Structures are given as C-alpha cells and as structure tokens.
Amino acid sequence: MSNPVIIVAVIAVLALFIVTLYNRLVRLNVAVDEAFAQIEVQLKRRSDLIPNLVESVKGYAAHESSTFEKVVNARAKATTATTVADVAAADGAVTQALRGLLAVAEGYPDLKASSNFLALQEELSTTENKVAFARQFYNDNVRALNTAVKTIPTSFFAGLAKVSSREFYEVEDPQSRQAPTVKF
C-alpha cells in the first residue's frame, strides 16, 4: 500500500467518525424536541378537559367561585407558556388548582356520584398519568442529550451541530415535597 491510499483511508475513517457523531447529536436534539411536544400534547388534552370538569362541579358548588377562578386562571397561563421552565411552572399551577377543585368536589356526595363527573375524573386521572410519562420521557431524552454534549468526543462537535445542553422538566410542587401525614 502506498502513502496516498493510507492517507485517503484515514481521512475517510475520520470523516465517517465526525459525520456519525454529528448525526448522533442532531438525532438526540430532535428527540428532545419531540419529547417536549408530547408533553405539550398531553397538557393540551388536560387543558381541554378542565372546562368540562369546572362546569360539572359548578352545578353542585356554585358558591366556590374562588376555586373556579384559580383553575381558569391557571389554565389560561398554561396555554400561553412557551419555554420549558414556563410550561413546567404553569403545569404545577394547574395541578395545584385541580387539586383544589377536586377537594371541593369531595364535599358534595351527589357530585361524586354523578356519572359525568366520575367519567371526567377518570379521564383526568388517565391524562395525568400520560403527562407524567411524557415528562419522564422528555427528561430521559434530555439526559441522553446532555450526556452526549458534555462527554468526549461528542462535546467537540456540539457547537458544529448547533446543539447545547437542555434543561430538565421540573414541576415545583410543594405538596409533593411534604411528608404525608399518617393517622391511626
């Protein structure tokens, strides 16, 4: 083998290596975007359920207007959020407001027995599970991307691929940080 053949072979292998790393970073970045879009789809689904749930509860608990206002305001903020941090904050606010709404519903046995309310509550529960899964899926993809961006050799090509670390989806929920009270 002559020197030019070896040089061409080394250049080809090096080019293939660079293209592979570049494409990996791009794929990971696209996966994070897709995962965030799935969170938004599930949050939109939950947002679409809220008016029906509020109307269902309003029929039984019309005097609980501050609770309804909190839910409506949280939903409105959630529909305008765009960044990961803003969406996560709005998501947390909606979750808190819905807890308040469902706590109000607990005081009305007729409402809790209503088939419409029960169906909405079940749909909301299913949607909350899908939101939780979408959050986890997003964070898994962010972890993979961030690991690639921060480790060698892909870290050398992150700028070239216009890919940078992404923030995790974290919902600040003060109730989830409190230890549950157990009474016997």
Descriptive report:
By secondary structure, the chain is an all-alpha fold. It has one domain: LemA-like domain (de novo design (two linked rop proteins), Up-down Bundle), CATH 1.20.1440. The chain is built from six helices and no strands. The longest helix is centred in the N-terminal third of the chain and has 56 residues. The model has no long low-confidence stretch (mean pLDDT 87).
| Helical/strand content category | mainly alpha
Relative helix content: over 70%
Low-confidence stretches: none
CATH topology: de novo design (two linked rop proteins)
As a percent range, the share of strand residues is under 5%
CATH-defined superfamily: LemA-like domain
Number of domains as seen in the coordinates:
1
The shape, in one word, is rod-shaped
What's the CATH class, please? Mainly Alpha
Q: What's the alpha carbon Rg, rounded to whole Å?
A: 24 Å
The largest sheet is: none
* Average pLDDT number: 87
Span between termini: 83 Å
H-E string: HHHHHH
